[in-house]
Every structure is written in C-alpha cells, then in structure tokens.
Design brief:
The complex is a heterotrimer of chains A (497), B (359) and C (304). Chain A has 497 residues and is of the alpha/beta class. Chain A has helices spanning 43-50, 73-78, 96-103, 111-124, 139-152, 169-184, 196-202, 225-233, 239-242, 297-304, 327-332, 342-346, 353-358, 376-385, 402-415, 433-448, 460-466, 489-496; strands spanning 3-14, 17-28, 32-36, 58-63, 66-68, 81-84, 157-161, 188-193, 205-210, 213-219, 256-266, 272-282, 286-290, 312-317, 320-321, 335-338, 421-425, 452-456, 469-474, 477-483. A six-stranded mixed beta sheet of chain A has the order 6-7-8-3-9-10, with helices on both faces. Chain C is built from twelve helices and two strands. The chains are: A alpha/beta (497), B mainly alpha (359), C mainly alpha (304).
Chain lengths: 497, 359, 304
C-alpha cells in the first residue's frame, strides 16, 4: 500500500510542556490507522498539526512523498486533509445547509449545489434536516452534520478525532461504518481514540503515544490488548487495576449536607434543562451522577454552586437555604466547586497561578482594610500537595497544560479552607492518568474525613469505583437512584446504552 | 503552495533589559519616520530634531515639561485603571474638562476656603466630577451593555460642547475672548521655586493608584474583571458594581488632571482648554505596559513632546497638530514592540524537490 | 423655501453619515472595531479638498479620497489582523496619526476656496436638490445588505465576526475576509469624507471633521449592524445635527453650543436602548467577537 501522509521528527512545545517529542508517523492509503494514547499523550496536538491548527516547532510533513507545510486549516483542506472533530465545528446561528456550504466553500444560495448536496446526503443514508439552525440540534445530530461535512469534501486523508466519545450507540455504528466505507474506497483514515477495544474493532494498524513520545506502531493483528495498555500507561496494568480503590464500609446514615428540592433550571439559551430534581447528599458519602451527555448535569451542578439562577425549587446546604445566594456565599459555607469548564470558568488564564490560588478565597487572603497578603509558603505547600512544582507561582495559568490547570483548581478548591461539600462536574474528563488518580485519591481522602462529594461523570467505571450512591439522570430528570452495594451493574449498563 | 512560508510563533518571555531596548528603538524609529513628514511641510528635519530636544529638556524648558507632565501622567493612570480591568475608557479628555468645569463652579460659590483645604478640594472636586462623568458610561455598560469605548468618546464631545457653551455663554467674563472668570486665588496651587506644587499631588495620586491596583483586593478583583463574566460569577464578585467602581476610579484620575491643570496652569477656562492630554495618556499607558510604577517615566516622554511642540510652533511655525501625528506614529511603533516582544517571526523556505517514498 | 433648504441639509449630512456607517458596519461585522475611522476620514476629507483645489476635477477628488482612505486603513488592518494587536489602541493610533497629518498638512489649504468647477450634477425633485451621491449612499446600503445576506463573502464576513475559531476551522480565509472588509470600509468612508469636505462644508478649516468617524461606529452598533437599519440611524442623527443649525435661525432661545452635543447625546441614548433591548438577549447572528484579537494557537492573552 502506498504511503499517504508521513510525519518525521515532529516537535511541538508549549510554554511549560513538550506536547510532542520527535514523533514519526505514517499513514497509508486503504487503511484505518488508530492513534491510541491516554488524555494528554499528545494525540490532539498531533491532529491539530496535521489539520493546520498548530504549526510544529520542527519536523517535516510529507503528503504523497512531497514535502508540505500546512499553515492553516484552509491549507489542510486544500491538500485533501479532512478532519472530523470530536466537538463539531459549526456556526450556531446558521442553518445546517449554510454550514455545509461554507465548509465546502460554496454559496448557500447556489440552487444547483443545494440540489446536489441533498442527493449526496441521501446517498449516504444519513438523516439530517438541512433547514434547522445548528443551535437547535442535539449533540448526536451535530455529530451527524460533522460526518456529512467530512464526507462531502473529496479528500485523500480523513482524520477522525475521538468521534465516538460523545454520541449514542446508533450514531457510533454509523461512524464506524463510514470509516470502513472510506477505507474500502482507498482513502487513508486516521482514527484517534483512547479506548483500546475500539482499536481491535476497526483498525488495521495502531500507533501508541505516551507523554508526547511515540511508543510503538504495529499491525493490530500482531498485538495484544495488554501490550497496548502497557504502551499507553508505561507499566503493566489492566483495566480494573486503574480503578481499584479502598472502600470503607459506611456506618449508619448521618446528617444531610445538601438537600435539593423540586429544582428547575434553564440553560443559557433559555431551555429547561433540569426538571423537577430532588436529591439529598449525606455527610461522608460520595454521590455519583451518570447519564447521557448534556442531560442537565452541568446545569444542576452550576445551580447548586450558585452560578446559575434557579427557576423553581429549593437548595439547602448545611441547613441553610442558599437558593438565591451567590457563589461566594456558599463558598464560605465550605463548598468547593470544580467546574467542567476549566479554561473559561475554573481559572483566570491571564492571571498567575498565585492569583488563581487565592481568587476564590479573597476573604482569607486580605486584611480588614482590603489589602491582600500572600502567604507564599502556604501557597507553595499547596502546590506540592497536588504534585505541581513550587516555582510556578508567578506563571500565568494560560501557559500550563490542562492537567496542571486542573491541579491548580483542586488545590484552590480543596486545600484553602475546610471543605464540607465538594461539587465536581466531570472532574477527570480529558485528564491524563496521573491527574485522574490524584482527583480520585483526594476525593476518597476527603470522604474518609467526613466530607461529602457530589460528582458527575460519563465514565461508568469511575462512577462504580468511587460512589457510595449512584444516580442516573436523563433529560433533566432522576430516573434511577441506588446504593452502590445494591447496584446491578448490568442493569445500569443497559440503562445507559 | 508557495515555497516561502512566514510563520509567527509565540516566544519565551524576554528579559526586562531587552524589552527596554526594543522600546527605545521604537521611540527612535518613530522620530525618524517623522523626518519626511516634517520635510513635506517645508521645514529642515535637523532643526526639528534640535527643537524637539531643546524644547523639552533644556533647563528653561523643564518647568514647562513638568506642567504638561501632570495631566499626561494622571490621564495615563486613568487609562491603566480601566484597561487593566478590560474596560476601555478612552474619553479621558471629556472627564478632564468636566473636572475643571466642576471645580471652577464650586470654587466660585465658596471662594474663601483657606488654602491647605482648598488645595485638597481641587483634587477631590475635579476627581468626583470626572469620575461621575465616566460613571455614566460605566452604568450604561453595566446595565445595558452599551460599548464603553464608544460612549466615552461620545461623552468627550458632549463635555467639549458644554465647555464651549460656558465659555461663550453664561461664564464669559470679557467681551473680546471667549474666556471665563478666573479660579479664585485660594484655589490656585502655588509654585515651589520654578516648579508647580501640583507635582506633590501627582506623587500622592500615583502612589495611591499603585497601592490600589497592586496591593489591594479591589485591584485583584479588577484584573479578574478582564477575564469575563463566567469567572466573575464563579468567584461570586458583583460584576456590575465592579464595572462602576473601575469606571469611577478611572474618571477620577482624568477629572483630577483637569482640575489640577486649571488650578496651577490655566487659571480660567477657554475653548482651547481641551489639550488632548487624554490621548497622550493612553499612549503613555501603553508605553509603560499598564504598570503604574513606570507611568511617570512614560508620561515624561509625552509631556516633553508637548512642550517642544510649543517651542516649535513659536520658532519654526510647525503646526501643533504635527505633534499629534508624531504621537500617533509613536503609538504605532510601541504597538510593534508589543508584537515583536511577544512573537517570533520565522521565514521558512521549503525545497520543492520531492522525496521518493520509501514504500 | 426655508424648509426645503433644511431638508436638503439633512439629506446631505445623512449621506455622509450613511456612507461612513455602512463602512464601519462591514468591518464590525467582520469582528474588527476600527477606531481609526476618525483618522482616515480626516485624511480622505483633506485629500479630496486638496485634489479638488489643484485639479478642479470632482471625480478625481472622490477617487483620490477613496484610495487614500483605503491605503491609510491598511495600517489598522496590518496591526490588528497580522500583528494581532489590540483593536482599540491600534485604532486610536491610526486616528491620531491621521488627524495629526490631516490638520498639519491642511494648514496651507485653510481659506482657499474650491474652484467653481467643483459642483455636483443636481436633479431637482419637488424643489429638493438631489445629487448622485445621495442616491448612491442608499444604493450602497442595499448592495451591502445583498452582500452580507445573499453572497458567500457575506456569510464569511458574518461568521468571522461571530466566531473566528469556527470560521477558521471551516476553512474560511479569515485574514483575506478581514482585508476585504477593511478595504470596503476605506472606500466608503473615503467617499463619505470627500462628500463632506466638497459638498456639505465646501471649505477647509482645521478640526472640521472632528467626531464624524467615531459617530459612525456608534451608528453601526445601534443599527444592529444591519445595512438597511443604518439608513434610519443615519437620517436620525443627520436630523439632530441640523437642529443645531436650524433652531437658532428660527429664534428658539437655545445655545447652539449646547445643540452641537445633541447628536452625541442621542447616539448614546439610542445605543444604550438598543443594547439593552437586543444585544443583551445574547441574540445570535451579531458580531460577538467584536474587538477580540484572533490568534489561532493562543488560549488567552493579557489586556486584549
């Protein structure tokens, strides 16, 4: 088979991390090549370099044996490199048709083009409403549009960046089918994933990245699952090993730290996302919430953390009604909130790590007259506790990697003051193995000290490993609630599938 | 695909020395570019440069430079306060006018306040008026989201209309010129030797600004304001109130600049009272990279330009607007420094020779 | 008769505002907040006047004004699009340079009248003296509406202003689109400025253009960046502008100096009301990335 794309000695540095360290990689026509690695391994950076979003610091890229430089996403498209992004690249205010036309560099007013478009889409057997505006679409519909967008472009190389992670089962099958079709028609397909099972399901060859370095490239039929896992994580370990946690048997039920009663919450566009939710969190327990993406988990957490207005209902924390209070008020009650949106909510990117560490607890760090005082020794020891180097106090947060930023957030939320309730929205999403483990360890430790934790996750294994009680949320409602001990794992899996 | 690609990359932090060097080069370059423009006006560029230096830093020019320094430096701090919070108050000149107008009005009502107190009143009355004038835009920004860069500019023209109205109308004191009655004697800041005592007010106000911005909780909250509403909600700050505080404080400094200038230099109002110190202040703010501790140094350069422009107008008959153009050039060059200290530009040549694939 | 003169004055002033507003509107739609407009308005007004005085050819004067404004506007485009610098400060720099150059180079033109050959062909409709530019400004508004909502380039301009990250990933050539938008702005504002110095105020005096450019930015905003609404906005401000001239003539005891502030007061009021009613709703389809520097690889930057 002919080589389509070849990368040689690619290096990409960010201010405090080396994202890709001298990576070689090749992709052939008529194959599906899986790029495997845990979060933070450098997969997305590599994809961004191929699709023109980033430019590499050094290294060479060849397409069909010719040296190329890709300096913008437009360049990449002109060269025939088509990417399907995990988060669909669409303009909310425009219709599906207008989005597709723009992506293909055509005018949405061109009748002939529109007719052709309709025919092509029907040919693929994918159902989408061309007249709908993107903000009206559900997550799976958006994913479908994203796939169609890629199919309409006549490319040589197709990049699928974790396309299956946010869609339902049916759409997942569609995506896999599309990938096979592309392969059969002789295209080169690059498939980025962090799920080992998917590699065996569909790929011909696999390349593993770990911490920015290439570990191996092999034919899939010549490699075992444990070999891949070892390559990904650096040491021999299995799926269950990662999640083995100590679980203390809880004594009899203690007092309620959080009561949510008949809660209704809207999202930014004014749609009702949380409908009639009532729940309780007891002292010294971990309550895990799982459910399909975008079922109102985020809005629920934001409402409890007092970042979002409540339409109806009541929130009581530690015996005090907080329904109309501000986030700083509940913070003083000992509530920590770890938002899912680390970059634009959880941290002030242009400010230094030092300022980020104190900004939610200014009352602790300022005198009566309003002058603030840094306790540098204390801040440094906080950094050490979350495994960060202590000399980054004056570095702006924008220069840190995602994992490091999450550690700064953890330090600020959990170590500044005595915490009684932790609200964590997808606290490990997109994080590398080590940071994920740190989050889990800190949660367990806090729970054992009597603190309560309410967290959401999309990872059933994580929910099962951490939670004392489990809630399933779909479409803004609680549809299942059970003690961890009484959970029928198979029933739960079916409910989520 | 063209064989030459220009790639712009972020660079590692530069040392302070290198940055200072870049800035010095930028200032020189902007002066050099001015030469052909001056020549176009029919003036020998060498003479232009001579008066540029003599007109600002010769011993007899220094008091004039300092007279200009005070309003420029205060407008510079006004800009720093709002820019750091991500708000764009660029109507300092309007607040400057209102500060002076309000001082003249109140002082004419209570002309007999004894000196030490009256001097304090100069700063406070002007500051409050400028702050209130700017606060109007702050309130509009906070409660209606009207763009404050645009509204502060509009308010500048409104203030300038009010100034003209007063000078030609109710406050006009002589038949000949559109001048108002003078500021009562008690409110006129005296000189200490050849230099005005307003320099003390400048020192105190600069120190206070540094204290507020770099040492208080309010200063940190203001920097967080620049990060956007989601972080603000997360921390639980009062977004609207914070905007209003920032805009008032920013206007306070510009207003104090106006009342001080009236008190130690102008003594009465006339339509020409608006000297566009505000725009110079914005340039100075960019020159000192929004750091209060360097604001006076940066403002000194702009103030020097002002005083040399007087000399040049008198001796070379260069229109004073020439200095505005030079200021614009200077700001563009400073902006270029910001680019080159933040990014590296790489030019990459791609050999078009194709490589045979290994397979 | 006096009434017709007043109406004619309004038409002429509205034409200036409309051309400048349409220009500012299109760059704002592309996400650029160009405060430099004040500067190249002044430059173009001067160039038009100078060319008119020396050549006596009105067409040449208009062309020269458009070209000079376009060229001058490129300084802003390079600073903000390529060098990723702060829009507001870059715009102020261009404005200062433009105002300074225009007024200092224009000193020699003060008091020199326009040659008699400089006049517009006029069509008399019901006593109103209409010239081609008045009509053209309306046509420009309609054409821009067509451009923005009916052509590929229009879609590209709108999404670049709404979400440059998505536009970039969709393969829209952001830099090119922004260049085109600023070029259109340069030409339109240049024509408006030429009309101002040659027809509306047919003489040159220092400071004659002050504030006109910046007013156009606010006009574009409170017209919700819609080319057709901008016609209404421009005529409204032109009316208030004329009031300052007309009321004293009619013997109304108001100081003309205070009336000069009227267009600005009205603009602030209109901008606030429209912002409150429309923009706060987080309505889709407006340039939400206005004045934000786009830099592909960077997450966040201080003071921009």
């Amino acid at each position: 088979m002919k080589t389509a794309l070849e990368l040689r000695g690619i290096v990409k540095k960010f201010p405090h991390t080396v994202a890709l360290d001298n990576v070689d990689f090749d992709l052939r026509y008529g194959e599906i090549h899986a790029l495997l690695g845990e979060n933070g391994a450098g997969k997305t950076t590599l994809v961004n370099i191929i699709s023109g979003v980033y430019s590499a610091d050094s290294g060479e890229i060849y397409l069909d044996g010719k040296r190329i430089v890709i300096s913008s996403p437009r360049d990449a498209q002109k060269l025939g490199i088509v990417s399907v992004s995990q988060h669909p690249i669409l303009v909310d205010s425009l219709t599906v048709l207008e989005n597709l036309a723009l992506a293909l560099d055509m005018s949405p007013r061109d009748r002939k083009f529109v007719n052709e478009l309709r025919k092509v889409i029907e040919g693929f057997g994918i159902r989408i409403d061309l007249g709908k505006r993107v903000w009206q679409l559900s997550a799976s519909e958006k994913a479908r549009v994203e796939i169609v967008k890629a199919l309409l472009r006549d490319g040589k190389v197709y990049i699928f960046d974790e396309p299956t992670s946010l869609v339902g089962l049916k759409d997942r099958l569609t995506i896999l089918r599309v990938m096979r079709q592309l392969k059969d028609s002789g295209k080169a397909v690059l498939f980025i994933t962090h799920r080992v099972d998917e590699v065996f399901e569909i790929a011909d060859r696999v390349t593993v990245l770990r911490k920015g370095k290439k570990i191996l490239t092999k034919n899939v039929n010549e490699v075992s699952k444990s070999e891949l896992l070892e390559a990904m994580f650096g040491k021999s370990l299995t799926d269950t090993d990662v999640r083995s946690m100590s679980r203390k048997e809880r004594s009899s039920r203690r007092g309620e730290i959080l009561i949510v009663d008949d809660l209704y919450v809207k999202d930014d566009t004014g749609r009702l996302k949380v409908k009639n939710i009532s729940l309780k969190v007891y002292e010294g327990e971990i309550l895990g919430i799982i459910g399909p993406a975008d079922s109102g988990q985020r809005e629920l957490m934001e409402a409890i953390a007092r970042l979002r207005d409540v339409e109806r209902g009541r929130i009581v924390i530690a015996g005090k009604e907080v329904t109309r209070l501000k986030s700083s008020d509940v913070r003083r009650l000992g509530v920590a909130y770890i938002p899912d949106d680390r970059l634009s909510t959880g941290s002030a990117l242009t400010l230094s790590v030092k300022e980020n560490l104190i900004m939610r607890d200014l009352d602790l760090y300022s005198t009566r007259l309003g002058f603030y005082k840094y306790d540098n020794d204390r801040l440094r020891s906080m950094l050490l506790k979350v495994g960060l180097p202590e000399d980054i106090l004056d570095v702006p947060c924008a220069d840190l990697s995602g994992g490091m930023i999450q550690r700064v957030i953890l330090a600020r939320e959990l170590l500044n003051r005595d915490v009684r309730l932790v609200l964590a929205s997808y606290p490990t999403q997109g994080l590398d193995h080590e940071t994920t483990k740190l989050v889990h360890d800190m949660f367990i430790l806090l729970r054992d000290k009597g603190c309560s934790i309410l967290f959401t996750s999309e990872d059933l294994d994580e929910i099962l490993a951490l939670s004392d009680r489990i809630i399933v949320m779909t479409d803004g409602k609680v549809v299942y609630e059970s003690d961890r001990r009484d959970v029928d794992v198979n029933e739960l899996r079916e409910m989520l599938a | 695909m063209s064989p030459v690609k220009i790639v712009v990359k972020r660079r590692e932090k530069l040392s302070r020395k290198v940055k200072a060097l870049y800035t010095a080069v930028a200032i020189l370059v902007s002066f050099l570019i001015a030469a052909p423009i001056v020549a176009a006006l029919g003036i020998n560029p060498i003479l232009f440069y001579k008066y540029l230096i003599v007109g600002s830093f010769a011993p007899y020019s220094i008091p004039l430079t300092i007279i200009n320094l005070i309003p420029v430096a205060l407008c510079c701090i006004s800009a720093i306060v709002s820019f750091r919070a991500g708000l764009w108050n660029i109507g300092q000149d309007g607040q400057y006018i209102m500060g002076a107008v309000f001082l003249l009005w109140i002082a004419s009502l209570i002309p007999n306040v004894p000196p030490p107190l009256s001097y304090v009143l100069v700063v406070i009355l002007g500051g409050i008026a400028g702050g209130a004038w700017c606060l109007i835009c702050g309130v509009l920004r906070a409660y209606t989201e009207a763009n404050e860069a645009v509204t502060t500019l509009m308010m500048l023209y409104i203030a300038s209309s009010i100034l003209n109205y007063l000078c030609y109308g109710p406050w006009r004191s002589s038949i000949g010129f559109p001048e108002t009655f003078p500021l009562p004697q008690n409110y006129q800041l005296p000189n200490i030797g050849p230099i005005t005592s307003a320099i003390i007010a400048l020192a105190v106000l600069t120190f206070l600004a540094w204290l507020i911005l770099d040492r208080t909780r309010l200063g940190l909250e203001m920097s967080i304001l620049a990060e956007g509403t989601r972080v603000i909600d997360y921390i639980g700050l009062r977004y609207r109130r914070l905007i209003c505080i920032v805009m008032f404080l920013s206007g306070f400094y510009a207003g104090a600049a106006g009342s001080l200038y009236l008190s130690y230099a102008a003594k009465f109002l006339e339509p020409g009272f608006i000297a566009y110190y505000g725009f110079s202040g914005i340039i100075a703010a960019w020159l000192c990279e929004l750091k209060v501790e360097y604001s006076i140094l940066a403002s000194l350069l702009l103030a020097a330009l002002y005083s040399s422009s007087y000399t040049m107008q008198a001796t070379l008959n260069i229109p004073s607007y020439m200095i505005d153009a030079l200021e614009g050039l200077l700001l563009i060059c400073i902006l270029l420094v910001h680019f080159f200290t933040r990014y590296r530009v790489e030019i990459r040549f791609i050999s078009s020779s194709s490589k045979s694939s290994r397979k | 008769m006096r009434f017709l003169i007043i109406v004619n004055g309004i038409l002429e002033r509205a034409t200036v505002y409309l051309l400048a507003t349409e220009g500012s509107l299109i760059v704002q739609r592309a996400g650029l907040l160009n405060l430099g407009i004040e500067g190249f308005f002044a430059i173009a007004a001067l160039v038009a006047y100078a060319v008119a005085v020396y050549s006596g050819n009105i067409v040449l004067a208009f062309i020269a004004a458009a070209v000079s404004a376009l060229a001058f506007n490129m300084i802003f485009t390079v600073l903000t699009v390529h060098l990723r610098l702060n829009h507001i400060v870059s715009g102020l720099a261009v404005s200062m340079l433009g105002l300074g150059l225009s007024y200092s180079l224009g000193v020699s033109l003060v008091g020199i009248p326009l040659p008699s050959s400089i006049s517009m062909p006029i069509v008399n409709v019901l006593g109103l003296e209409l010239d081609p530019m008045i009509l053209m400004s309306i046509i420009v508004a309609v054409l821009l509406w067509y451009l923005l909502y009916r052509t590929k380039l229009g879609y590209q301009i709108r999404i670049v202003g709404e979400n440059p990250h998505v536009a970039d990933r969709l393969g829209v050539p952001i830099d090119k689109v922004r260049y085109i938008a600023t070029a259109i702005e340069g030409v339109l504002v240049g024509l408006g400025a030429a009309y101002y110095s040659l027809v509306v105020i047919p003489e040159w005096s220092t400071g004659v253009t002050l504030g006109k450019g910046w007013l156009a930015i606010a006009l574009a905003m409170f017209s919700l960046w819609h080319p057709i609404y901008a016609i209404g906005g421009s005529y409204l401000i032109a009316c208030s502008d004329s009031l300052a001239r007309v009321l004293p003539l009619l013997g109304v005891p108001v100081s003309p100096y205070l009336l000069y502030a009227l267009p600005y007061v009205l603009t602030i009021a209109a901008l606030s009301i429209v912002s409150y009613v429309e923009i706060k709703k987080k309505r889709l389809g407006i340039p939400t990335a206005l004045a934000k520097v786009y830099s592909r690889e960077e997450r966040a930057r201080k003071y921009t």
